[in-house]
Write a structure and sequence with these properties.
The protein is of the alpha+beta class. The protein is built from 15 helices and 12 strands. The relative contact order is 0.18. It binds protoporphyrin IX containing FE (HEM).
């Protein structure tokens, strides 16, 4: 393959955890940056990456156009390590069309209902892992919002939650070290899980066809998109599956960290319990910033001129331009390693000028690909933490701040070990 011109420094011997055994994917790139500076190449397996961390480089990264350097293609190349190929072909309702204003109101109403169901399940006292709690909540809210009648209740819900845990696309970046095994089994478990999802969603479609369409706005849109198609049931089921998988990437993990941080900061917890929603949102944003472990990647489709502030590189098609949030979010300026909700004013940094570029820090991305689900996600995190922390006194049982899964390189961190809390109404 043609190379980058001029030739950037090359991190020989550095690979990414899909291709070579790496204990800590983020630490490996940090070590390469310490050796080679803010812009360098990594050749990993069949892939070529130009990593950039300088202020101008990160700004150039966010300015890349989809036509020249594609996030869609980069996401596909990442997710196909885990997901069966069939799920990508021919989708008619995509995750980025989910967040019209009236949609969000429906999702938040479903979240309220899911929170009540969680409280019933938890009962008056017990012990629960905060990340498990958040994940089940995310499944329930999501499936009620887009998987059709009956999918968020009873046996259908339990089967769907199990199937989606097996089909979780975020395994591609949370457990990249497991992707060789997924390939070796030809994605047998994932295919079985997708069949299971299809069967249950098809039952929901039949109920919908029979007039059971209570508060199923998005599901109705998905169904309508497949009117008259010969493979209608599969088309609807795969649309639902890809949407739910997209929703699982970050939100539940971010809710988990919001609990962790609030439980570790009693004064903030008290404000949350007193109903200060603006503050609770800023706490949620701050927890998400600190938990970010995202690799941001764009796959070059047509040669791009990429300026990192010191050098202008020509990057040819087939290369990936990348940056890594955990190497910026907590170190781009002094003090960023602390959890401090007041660094945010609404969704923006209170003092952006303290940074060489405001783009060096983010929870939901910058520019044209920034997360369309940000307002919804922050509202959902606020509702989940404030409702459950008002209902229960929670006592964390971890003894030091939980650590992320070391191999993870992408998305919001998952906790490496259990994070149980004892709770009492
Ligand atoms: C706390 C929760 C979430 C966080 C921290 C988060 C974070 C992000 C970030 C950082 C990006 C930009 C990635 C890049 O530029 O390469 C992004 C994009 C995106 N997110 Fe989220 N996200 C969250 C929740 C969700 C949810 C619930 C959905 C629903 C399916 C979602 C759907 C998307 C989509 C479709 C994009 C791509 C937008 C585009 O390419 O134009 N996100 N998200």
């Amino acid at each position: 393959m043609t190379g980058v011109v001029p030739t950037p420094p090359c991190a020989e011997g550095t690979g990414l955890p899909w291709d070579v055994p790496v204990d800590d994917g983020v630490a490996a790139i940090a070590a390469a940056r310490a050796r080679h500076g803010d812009t360098f190449a990594v050749h990993s397996g069949p892939d070529h990456y130009l990593f950039t961390f300088s202020p101008a480089g990160v700004e150039s990264f966010y300015a890349l156009t989809e036509e020249a350097a594609s996030k869609g293609v980069a996401d596909y190349l990442m997710l196909r390590r885990k997901l069966p190929d069939d799920i990508f072909a021919g989708r008619r309702t995509l995750p980025n069309t989910l967040f019209r204003r009236d949609d969000v109101a429906g999702y938040l109403a479903n979240l309220d209902h899911a929170l009540e169901q969680s409280i019933t399940e938890l009962g008056p006292a017990g012990s629960v892992d905060v990340f498990d709690l958040a994940r089940r909540l995310g499944h329930r809210m999501g499936l009620a919002s887009w998987a059709g009648p009956g999918s968020a209740d009873g046996a259908a819900f339990e089967r769907l939650a199990r199937a989606f845990d097996a089909l979780d696309g975020s395994d591609a970046f949370v457990h990249p070290d497991r992707m060789a095994a997924v390939a070796a089994t030809e994605k047998r478990a994932e295919r079985a899980a997708l069949d299971e999802v299809s069967e249950i969603v098809s039952t929901a479609v039949r109920r919908f066809d029979d007039g059971d369409d209570d508060s199923q706005g998005l599901f109705g849109r998905i169904v309508a998109a497949w009117d008259d198609a010969p493979d209608r049931l599969q088309g609807i089921a795969f649309d639902v599956a890809l949407i739910h998988i997209a929703s699982m990437s970050n939100l539940a993990a971010a809710v988990g960290w919001a609990f962790v941080d609030l439980l570790e900061h009693p004064a903030a917890l008290e404000r949350v319990c007193l109903g200060d929603n603006d503050f609770t949102q800023r706490c949620a944003l701050e927890s998400t910033r600190l938990a970010q472990r995202s690799i941001m990647t764009r796959t070059v489709l047509a040669t791009v001129d990429f300026d990192d502030g010191a050098v202008s590189y020509q990057v040819p098609p087939g290369w990936n331009i990348a940056t890594l949030l955990p190497l910026l979010n907590t170190s781009a300026a002094p003090g960023l390693e602390q959890w401090d909700p007041d660094r945010w004013t609404r969704h923006r940094l209170t003092e952006p000028n303290a940074l060489p570029s405001p783009m060096l820090v983010t929870a939901f991305g910058h520019g044209r690909h920034s997360c369309p689900a940000q307002p919804f996600s922050l509202a959902a995190m606020t509702a989940a933490t404030s409702r459950l922390l008002r209902e229960y006194r929670m006592t964390p049982r971890w003894t030091s701040h939980p650590l992320p899964v070391p191999a993870q390189i992408g998305g919001v961190a998952r906790a490496a070990g259990p994070c149980p809390v004892d709770y009492l109404r």
